[in-house]
């Protein structure tokens, strides 16, 4: 079946937002541990939090903290923490977010060609995703009707749950098999795989961490998540898409 639709992850795939987000939520994560797991001595800085929980929205991150550190947050408290994290993160994104290198040029070309339907499919809350694409000017390529958020679904979900991908396919009127998903993290790539969507991995931002991290991310995307190809830079998109379509 011909590819008709490209589904882009947002954070660290289109927009370099993850370092900003994890810097914002590290203090909140430590405050959560102070309140609900005071005997736990472990505390997080932004980069360490990102390495451990990349690809998760804050609601899912709270659940992961609960499991790792052996505490249980009352369900009625979760929403308040999620709201605090969202407000702090959106403010940082509106001030500092930049597009992933090379992404704007490819998006301009794809829009001009009109060959593919383009959409954003993210784990993050809708206000954060919209802030990211508006700050970088990518809202010119993605009208709000083509921006899908797992955290803003009813009920909220998070990748690796495939629900947000399946919702996007339904609303766009396409089959998963005629789409390509572009993802940088295990959780996002797993969501695409579970939805039956062919996967293009992306490891560009990992170069800021070092070659070991790039190699490990590529291995995860290929071997664990079934990526057909892995893109190292947006300048490689055309060749990677050619291989996907072949």
Automatic annotation (TrEMBL):
UniProt protein name: Haloacid dehalogenase-like hydrolase
SUPFAM superfamilies: HAD-like
GO cellular component, one term: cytosol
Keywords, ordered alphabetically: Hydrolase
Domain of life: Eukaryota
GO MF annotation, one: phosphoglycolate phosphatase activity
Pfam families: Hydrolase (PF00702)
GO biological process, one term: DNA repair
NCBIfam families: HAD-SF-IA-v3 (TIGR01509)
InterPro entries cross-referenced by the UniProt entry: HAD-like_hydrolase_sf, HAD-like_sf, HAD-SF_hydro_IA, HAD_sf, PGP-like_dom2
């Amino acid at each position: 079946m011909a590819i008709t639709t490209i589904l882009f992850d947002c954070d660290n795939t289109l927009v370099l937002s993850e370092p900003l987000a994890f810097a914002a939520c590290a203090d909140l994560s430590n405050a959560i541990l102070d309140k609900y797991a005071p005997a736990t001595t472990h505390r997080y800085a932004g980069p360490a939090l990102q390495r451990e929980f990349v690809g998760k929205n804050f609601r899912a991150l709270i659940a992961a903290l609960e499991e790792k550190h052996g505490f249980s947050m009352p369900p009625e408290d979760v929403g308040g923490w999620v709201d605090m994290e969202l407000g702090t993160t959106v403010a940082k994104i509106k001030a500092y977010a930049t597009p992933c290198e090379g992404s704007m040029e490819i998006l301009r070309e794809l829009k001009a060609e009109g060959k593919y339907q383009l959409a954003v499919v993210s784990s993050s809350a809708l206000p954060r995703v919209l802030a990211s694409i508006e700050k970088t000017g990518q809202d010119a390529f993605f009208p709000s009707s083509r921006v899908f958020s797992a955290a803003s679904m009813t009920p909220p979900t998070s990748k690796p749950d495939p629900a947000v991908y399946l919702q996007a396919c339904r609303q766009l009127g396409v089959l998963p098999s005629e789409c390509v998903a572009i993802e940088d993290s295990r959780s996002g790539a797993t969501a695409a795989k579970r939805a039956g969507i062919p996967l293009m991995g992306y490891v560009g931002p990992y170069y800021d961490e070092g070659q070991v991290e790039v190699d490990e991310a590529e291995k995860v995307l290929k071997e664990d998540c079934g990526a057909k190809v892995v893109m190292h830079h947006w300048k490689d998109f055309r060749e990677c898409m050619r291989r996907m379509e072949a």
